[in-house]
Amino acid sequence: MGRGRPKLYHTAEEKLMANCAKSKRSYYKNKPSVRAQTDTSEVSQTAAPPVYKPTGRPKLYRTPEEKAMANRAKSKRSYNKCKIAISARKAVRYRAETRGRHSLFKGARREPHPNLDPVTVVGWMKLVSKTSAEFNARTGGSPQSYLEGLCQNYMVSRRKDKLSDACIHLEGLRNVTTRCLNGILQLAGVGKELGVVQTLGRAVGQVLAWLEDALCAVMCGYSEVVDMHRTRQLMYQSA
Q1: What residue spans carry the region label Disordered (predicted)?
Q2: Distances from the Cα of 106 to the Cαs of 88, 97, 183, in angstroms?
Q3: What does the CA dihedral 187, 190, 195, 196 come to, rounded to 10 degrees?
Q4: Which residues contact 61 (CB under 8 A, 6 or more apart)?
Q5: Which residues, at least 6 apart from 227, have a Cβ–Cβ distance to it below 8 Å?
Q6: Average pLDDT along the chain, 239 residues, taken 10 residues at a time
């Protein structure tokens, strides 16, 4: 008989025990990888499949009102940014639309607008007299009564339109008196005419200061105006 592989196990029980020992050694040798594979398989079986959400533009506005407010703010910013260009385009379009609508008489020529500022002391004093008459007509000769009437009108109607209009009108009169003061000072220097203009300017400035004080009280609220008027804390009441 030829020589073969030596016989290691003489009985079936010895061979079974050797196989068990070999399997045990192999298990402990590969234990970490086996556990990882087991955990991965368990997670893959129990966990829900991931849900992929489409990545789009983030939602900025939750309600239609928020979107409308944002659009209005955007339009306002755009208008303020391009206000000069828009005004220029409007002027050009208006001239193009009105050109030829009001034609001149045959043979008439366009003349440049004359200078509104007088060139003599007499002319300036006429403008001063006109401004003084307009101021007296506005105030009725009694600035305190004029302010009292405006405040009474506000407390009855709760509308500040007349106060605002009066303030705008007197601001225009003050600008005219400033022009007269500069013109007379340049032509005649310090003198009687300049004193007349200065007196008118002080009167207009005083009434304008009273109006601005009343408007400041109006901005604080209706009750503030009523309380200040009742306790005579308005500027014109203590003049």
Answers
A1: 25-59
A2: 31, 21, 39
A3: -20
A4: 67, 70
A5: 233
A6: 67 82 79 57 55 67 80 71 65 59 56 64 85 87 86 83 84 87 81 84 88 81 81 80
